[in-house]
Amino acid sequence: MHWIMENGVMMQYFEWNLPNDGNLWKQLKEDASHLHEIGVTAVWIPPAYKADEQQDEGYATYDLYDLGEFDQKGTVRTKYGTKEELKEMIDELHKNHISVYLDVVLNHKAGGDFTEKFIVVEVDPNDRTQVLGKPFEIQGWTGYSFHGRKDKYSDFKWHWYHFSGTGFDDAKKRSGIFQIQGEGKAWSEGVDNENGNYDFLLCNDIDLDHPEVVTELNRWGKWVSKELNLDGMRLDAIKHMKDKFIAQFLDAVRSEKGDKFYAVGEYWNGDLNTLDAYIKSVGHKVNLFDVPLHYNLFQASQEDMPRKAGAESDHARAPGGVDILEHTLAGEDFGEHLAQAAAGGAHLHVRGHPHHRALLRHHLLPVGQLADHHGEGHAFQFICHNVAPFRYHLLLPVYRLFPADARSGGGKEEKL
């Protein structure tokens, strides 16, 4: 079965540099009807659970069960607001026929409550399969008691043996990549082969081969999808996570929410064959961002592309970018030039509607990013980097909804 979302527009309703004012959930609730009016069908919201500090964007995950409800890490609310505000916002989006996808970070944990001692080996950062010396003892922040939550929702406590690696030895105040030793301890298989084995990314790397961990994360996935009435998830950093875990995790969540529960993963690799192989390895249970398209557009932005003959413009070409005009490019011709002329670190300005022909095809889902929609109009703008907050943008890469063998044309690659 292929999990797809057809003829929709998703908006990433946050960006990295939002202020730490706790207002995002309230702002999104107020904006729900307007998003529906301009055609948004789904909203991707940031990690909504407690991080290691209030100002964190949510990717330095501390307590998955604390959605802005408990006094932990010096705050009740998250950067974006309280749990009550979060649930009210989701209810309002649903009233406006907009699906909600939560950003889910299951690769690592940060901000441990206490230190523990355990045995590790240090590995080469450029090849994590190569050990640098003999095993030794370190002291790491791998103990999690979640004292502020007092076992509500879950009484699971995390310890060093629930992780496969860590990045800091507190005893010697030294950073490194330390692979935790013990029975059954190893980097996970089914991860990207960059750096030999790219299981470890940062902080305390969750051991997705540990049965207690798998059970607890499956339990949380079912709980949060029901607690917030989610319609889907954006899975963070899945190139660093065991592929078989991702497949069974989504099976567990869908056993609670049904087969239409949507999932898209961030697998940051520019090789299309690698992405297609991953989709097959997880049984087509998750869609992926089209990272190869991102790199194609970035490369094109570094090259000088002359305007198509006869094109005229009433505004200047963006520095480092390319203007695409409605009367100049259309249909597949536009799609061809999009792949040749868009911007990676620059802007690709699109006027009119021809971008719909290129990106609203059956296997692509455009994604908007939050920026200032109280400014000039509602024209979409293609970008591949963060911009000033509070304006709507169409964000690339878009989603690749089908692997190669599931597309029309007998599995032939469609040129992007």
What does this molecule look like?
With 416 residues, the chain is of the alpha/beta class. It has eight helices and 20 strands. The chain has an eight-stranded mixed β-barrel. Strands 6, 7, 8, 9, 10, 11 and 12 form a seven-stranded antiparallel sheet that branches. It has a two-stranded antiparallel sheet with strand order 3-4. The chain is globular.
DSSP strand (E) fraction? Answer: 15-25%
Helix/strand order, N-terminal first: EHEEEHEEEEEEEEHEHEHEHEHEHEEE
Q: Average pLDDT value? A: 78
Shape: globular
User: Order of strands side by side in the largest beta sheet?
Assistant: 1-2-5-13-14-15-20-18
Low-confidence stretches: 304-364, 372-416
What structural class do you assign from the helix and strand content?
alpha/beta
What radius of gyration results from the CA coordinates? 22 Å
Q: How many strand segments?
A: 20
Helical region count? 8
Q: Kindly, what is the distance between the CA atoms of the first and last residues, rounded to a whole number of angstroms?
A: 25 Å
Largest sheet: 8 strands, mixed, barrel
Which short descriptors sum up this protein?
416 residues; alpha/beta; eight-stranded mixed barrel; seven-stranded antiparallel sheet; disordered C terminus
Topology of helices and strands:
Blueprint: E1 10-12, H1 24-37, E2 42-45, E3 50-51, E4 61-63, H2 83-95, E5 99-104, E6 108-109, E7 114-124, E8 127-131, E9 136-143, E10 163-169, E11 174-180, E12 204-206, H3 211-227, E13 232-235, H4 243-257, E14 262-265, H5 272-281, E15 287-289, H6 291-301, E16 322-324, H7 331-341, E17 348-350, H8 354-359, E18 364-372, E19 381-383, E20 391-400
Parallel strand pairs: 1-2, 1-18, 2-5, 5-13, 13-14, 14-15, 16-17, 19-20
Antiparallel strand pairs: 3-4, 6-12, 7-8, 7-9, 7-11, 10-11, 10-12, 15-20, 17-19, 18-20
Helix pairs in contact: 1-2, 3-4, 6-7
